[in-house]
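#help-structures
NK: newbie question, is this the right format to request a structure? protein is Palmitoyltransferase
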Amino acid sequence: MYDFDHNEQLGGNGLTKASTIEEQYHSEREQAKLRHWKESDFAAGLVEPTWSDELENYRRKGCCCCPPDSEAMGQIFHEEIDPGCGCIYLSAVVCSRLGAGRIGNMAVLKERYVMVEADDDGDDECEEGAGGERVDGFVDEEEGGLSLHQRNSTSNSNTGGGNKILAAKTKRLVRKREIQLVLGPFWPMLLFITYPLIFGVSAWTFYIGIPGKPWFVQLGWALLTLQLIRSLFNTGFRDPGIVKRHTNPPPVQDDSALAADNNSRIRRRIGFRSGNEEGPWRWTDQVQSYRPKNSMYCTDCKVVVEEFDHTCPWTGTAIGKKNMGSFQMFVGLVFGCLIMDIFLLTTGGMI
């Protein structure tokens, strides 16, 4: 006789086992996500480690703009939708195919590692177990431990027939990560709206307004237009000033403190986390890192940007210390080129 109870019990055990494996998979995935976040070189928010992981997350849970079931569709009008959701989904689709890196919600298209010398001041802020030698034989900039390349630079001066040691410093060779090309979360607007508008208006002016004009007018228009395109590229494709991760506040040389302190040592000022709001470093919970006083966490890019001003959707990225000059040039050239285009299109053969 067929034992229904026995088979139902086996089926239930199978479902329970599958559910346990799935829960374990998601648990390990979340742990890897947290570990990658805490070990990141930059002060970035908690996101999926790679764009491929982000795309898999969308496929598993459904795009935030397109819920997978009808019940969720009924709730879509009652819940707040992230306005950048569509751009993040496009980033996951495109960047996962291109193999682009990820820092927060920013897509890293090109980067390199450069070797630089740094002073080894005996800094003891490194956490226990962090840092040390990597497989390739270098020491990262943010890591502690014993440096591989040390050099004592000693200066001797002969005054009054005696030798006096002026300075003795230790140098170490560190590997610094340098971002060369990076796109913000609103890159679709940059590539499909801002640039097409510039190219469209410029092409219209080139075919209708430029012919018949004096050579110096044509040259001036060409230089302004090319500089406009270049300034937009330097704004939208360059690092806006992403801050490195600092689990401990860097040392600050305070002359007034050193004068009052007999042992003349470098003090650490850690900002409002310990109640000192005058300190140069602030603690940010979103990135679990210290940041400079003049920086801010961008909720759209999910990174801390030095001298953060705003997030510009027309350029697709945040505006900060490293791209503020290019952005200001871009804004000025937009108005200059627009006025010149209108002038060339309306004057006809008057010049």
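mod (FA): yep, format's fine, and the tokens are attached above. Residues 68-81, 122-168, 257-277 have pLDDT under 50 and may be disordered.
NK: thank you!
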